[in-house]
Amino acid sequence: xxxxxxxxxxxxxxxxxxxxxxxxxxxxxxxxxxxxxxxxxxxxxxxxxxxxxxxxxxxxxxxxxxxxxxxxxxxxxxxxxxxxxxxxxxxxxxxxxxxxxxxxxxxxxxxxxxxxxxxxxxxxxxxxxxxxxxxxxxxxxxxxxxxxxxxxxxxxxxxxxxxxxxxxxxxxxxxxxxxxxxxxxxxxxxxxxxxxxxxxxxxxxxxxxxxxxxxxxxxxxxxxxxxxxxxxxxxxxxxxxxxxxxxxxxxxxxxxxxxxxxxxxxxxxxxxxxxxxxxxxxxxxxxxxxxxxxxxxxxxxxxxxxxxxxxxxxxxxxxxxxxxxxxxxxxxxxxxxxxxxxxxxxxxxxxxxxxxxxxxxxxxxxxxxxxxxxxxxxxxx
Amino acid sequence: xxxxxxxxxxxxxxxxxxxxxxxxxxxxxxxxxxxxxxxxxxxxxxxxxxxxxxxxxxxxxxxxxxxxxxxxxxxxxxxxxxxxxxxxxxxxxxxxxxxxxxxxxxxxxxxxxxxxxxxxxxxxxxxxxxxxxxxxxxxxxxxxxxxxxxxxxxxxxxxxxxxxxxxxxxxxxxxxxxxxxxxxxxxxxxxxxxxxxxxxxxxxxxxxxxxxxxxxxxxxxxxxxxxxxxxxxxxxxxxxxxxxxxxxxxxxxxxxxxx
Lengths: 381, 259
Hints:
The complex is a heterodimer. Chain A is of the alpha+beta class.
């Protein structure tokens, strides 16, 4: 049998079919409602827990599925064909917290948190970005100082996905200038969250600030060693970027499907509009760039894992794929004209959702910066 | 107790069905295969029965093709093992060919309860389940919408049309065919998908079952396929309900001559 880049094993293929079926039956029908309200569907997240999707990259002995980055990419890809907003909430929970936490934590910490977050009983998120430190993550100003057995955290994290619902967060703060990782429960004294930050797209997930005011965190909530935060952060950013790229691909796939179908059915001047060269350019270009993104993302995903670093690949995949979702959604809207612009059809929602991927998990500019640095190092060796 | 489920790999309902040049058979090129939709209700009922009463669930498929992909996917829904009968001798199989091979395999595994879909979504013959039961010497209940098992006794509810239900009670062994509404098939949970690859899947030839090509030689052969006639233009009748109803009846009687 020939090698299938997109479903390298039988399990990957079955996973894709299961998530596609779940997406059609359960995710699609709720997407528009949560987009309008700007709310995250907690029950749907718990259904993902029942299906075993929340710990997809966690080894079986840790209660997860023991699958790889390709599997995570498949789930984000399929979910985003219907609801990129919910897929973003899923990403924040399953990757920014669960995957990150598992590889940074010790056995006692896993015992306390994993059963709750693998089922979705607890929703989780991650706090890295600050009002004064986005791409310049090393410039973060949140601090942690030791106080007896505890740690005292101060600072503000912003644009935190799942901030409104989450029961716990993985948080980065500096200890004597060194970035260090903590797990912080919502009920830790001194932690509060801001109002829900309203946004253009990805409205099936929520966003808020995390405000730490002399927040007291138990000593056994330090993850790894003091100063270990950079490793945790960078290791997780690679799979996160591929998942975001896969979300863009999901948006593009759905938009290609919609525009092709619309261009066939829609008649103007006595014929289907797909007979017109202008429409054919939108369709042809959209398909070609979607396929290119698909190949790049899945190719890189084969070589990203907890022990396999591939920042060049993951930055390149997200840099290329992020605009593809946005451009293809825009093309679909142009092909559909007024229908594409109206809320009766999903294209305008996908169009709004797509923009985030050029910003979140690393701006396009940060990927260009990283690639230049890494490629310079590579070719000057 | 061993519970069998007969499943069939059929073209996915979204597949475009095409006829071979010459019209002697359907083309299998580009077809995406999937377990027939009604068989999904049968799998779910078997797994629910096992969860309630214990035992094991064995899947059975029969084809000239390799059905292991679809069967492996079905194993992720909870059955314990599978027997795939794969033999070139089934290339032109009719309902009795399939039933003969399935009944042999079911007998060999020692099942006492068998579920299957009420019909397969390709041939739509609604013959194999009854034939399997007959060959095994068992009763069968078709189009079941509710099933209960209490020890060796079962109660099956079947829809008989017009909103009327028939309740049938009896003792195992029995073949049950699943109607829509019997249950809601579950999704394959990810841990079950991972476990599915480790579940036993035995591929057997007709000879392995003690059958010869003559035993499964088809009685019915389909030799000429034609696409359905193109649908004519749709006629929209104008006017109020009374006028259009009268005109519709007239056209059905005088033009279509179906009344």
